[in-house]
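[DERIVE STRUCTURE TOKENS]
===
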Amino acid sequence: MNIEFISDDYTSDGLKLPMVHFESKEKDICVVFIHGMCGTIVDNYFATVWGKLLSSANVGFIYEHNRGHSIENDIVMKDGSFKRCGCMYEIFEDCIYDIDLAIQTAKDKGYKRIILLGHSYGCNKIIYYFYKKQPDILGMILASAPDMIGSHLSIQANDYEELLNEAKRNIDNGEPTKLIHKMIEDYMYMSSQTYYNWYHDGSELNNLPVISNPEHWVQFETIDVPILTFSGSNEEDHYLHLDLLKDKATNCKNFEYKIIENTGHTYKTKELEIGNLILDWITRNFYN
């Protein structure tokens, strides 16, 4: 097994995004991993387990550090300058550039067929990507897919309008990167541009509306490739309605889901079990 660190690829808008490639001897299928909020391969130990397992079974695996990696970071630009990025400054729609790069990198490495795998907020990104670009991919894996909007409104119900108005005011005053005065979900501070982009009415991020559950899930309904989704049984309630996701994936004819017992959002002690679940799904669906 060869593990390669990729550090010389740039998005079409000029950001250098590092990746880790678990190389397969056979250049056929590659799983492209899109991490969630603030993620890195150091935090996402489970991804290294999956990468090693899949590559040993001749399935490539690329973990891309997208522009939302870590809470805050400075990313090198193609012109040698730096751009302040990280989850607290991220614009959701920019995920298009990052996923484009990860897929192209896999193809440049010689892989012929691509599976997109999102973890947490990364699921929202690959759903949006499919909706906007209808990419030629084999399938999609949704690991702990969240209702980003519904869960936030539940947590921030008392001050949501105040925070949204503050963000809009800062943007209108020419200060889009000014931080909201209050920690979001008791987790992180967030720039005004990010808070407004994610949580305003009509946000593109609202593509897994489990809690509000409208009749149509517009983005999700466009997916017409096989889907595998799973969550840990110890996760919050909005992660666990996988039967509802199946019902709402109206254009998907091959949808499998599983609750992984006795584990949470990063799958501690269950990393290998889930890796084998993924490998079995790939083998059954794409190698027969």
The helical segments are 45-56, 95-108, 121-133, 148-155, 160-172, 192-199, 242-248, 271-286.
